[in-house]
Amino acid sequence: MRFSLWFPFLLVASAFATEKVYMSFYELTNIHSDYQFASAKIFQRYAEQDGRYEITIPAQVDSLVHQPSKDSVQQLAIAKGCSKYILGDMTRLGETVIITLSLYDTKTGEKVWTDAMKATGPDDLDPILERMAKNLGTKKEAANNATITSVTQKESAPLRQKRTNNSFGVGISGLLQTTDPGPLFLPGLEVFWLYDARNLLVQTEGSFNQATIDDDNDKEMVLLAFGISAYYPFSETDFTPYLGGGISYSSVEIGSDDDYDNDDEENKNGILFRVGGGLMLNRTSTVSIRLRLEYVIATYTVDKYLANGPQFTVEAGF
After folding, report:
1. Same domain, 144 and 185
2. Which pTM does this prediction carry?
3. Can you tell me whether residue 244 is helix, strand or coil?
């Protein structure tokens, strides 16, 4: 009867029993040996704060100690009566240090937990070791478990962003209107602003095209368009093909080129669609050249003219 009264308390105590864990020294790469014992000692202190673990570490030595093999550490953990053991390493590359820790079951040698974080300097080691120690053996990741007192220099640094190159340019174009009552060739000029985001080209442009329809009656066609285009470049090299298209708001006017004869003028506004591609040359230079071939699709007619057809453009960006 007495045992049955104490049984629930024994279950609770066993659930929160301290687990003995053996921790080998970190394997250091391009890091001074002074950090080897100090980092293990700091991790030990943080890991033991909540009472879940009792961390055993090797004695301090004066020189760099290379981490024993996994099997050797496992045997040491067995000899010290530890149910689990930890292997870790710190690797420095430039100003960045990568800290990795793994927890293993002593009986089976199976990895039961692992975590890794990056530090940008010595001041980051303490908050990183604190966060990794508190997450030891859990499903949480140290990278997602920061507090206001454990934010690292790397995390507080401004986010790096890819720079986009932009250029202003001009171009000459020719639109071949192929539908009835064509064909009609409309030469023109263009100004544009291009944003090069490496894997995407975005351009805004304004264009002017003009052609004479009837020489006897001095009748001409004028096309004004303002639009936006997007293209996918197939590589990041100096010479790359690209595909895409765009949409423009346009105005088409057909009438006499005589300023005093406006009786037969007709003007309409609407949308133009463009689809096609081209080649980009000297992409890495301050002056780039683009050759563009697209098919223009108009959504409206003016005096029976529909501005559908291929358009070729040569552009220079600065």
Report:
1. no
2. 0.57
3. strand
State how far the Cα of 89 lies from the Cα of 102, in Å rounded to an integer.
Answer: 9
Beta bridge partners of 295: 275, 310
For the record, the structure tokens of 256 come out as 């006499």
The answer to whether the CB of 275 falls within 8 A of the CB of 269 is no
240 and 275 housed in the same domain:
yes
Kindly give, in sequence order, each residue whose CB lies less than 8 Å from that of residue 147, ignoring residues fewer than 6 positions away: none
| 173 plus 308 within the same structural domain | yes
- Closest by Cα among 190, 196, 189, 198 to 167: 196
Residue 124: inside a domain, yes or no? Answer: yes
**pLDDT of 13 above 90:** no
Q: Give the span between the Cα atoms of 83 and 40, in whole angstroms.
A: 19
Look-up of token digits 């080897």: 36
Question: For tokens 């040698």, what's the residue?
Answer: 109
pLDDT digits (tens, 9 = 90+) for 180-209: 777 889 999 999 999 998 899 999 999 999
What is the maximum alpha-carbon separation in the chain? 120
Domain termination site, one of 156, 179, 210: 156
Same domain, 118 and 171: no
Q: pLDDT tens, 98-154?
A: 999 999 999 999 999 999 999 988 889 999 999 999 999 998 888 787 776 777 877
Residue 62: give the domain boundaries. Answer: 17-156
The answer to whether 90 and 38 are in contact (CB under 8 A) is no
- Which of 241, 267, 236 has its CA nearest to residue 254? 267
Out of 97, 131, 156, a domain closes at 156
Same domain, residue pair 149 and 194: no
Specify the residue for token string 């704060």. Answer: 49
Distance from first CA to last CA of the chain, Å, rounded? 92
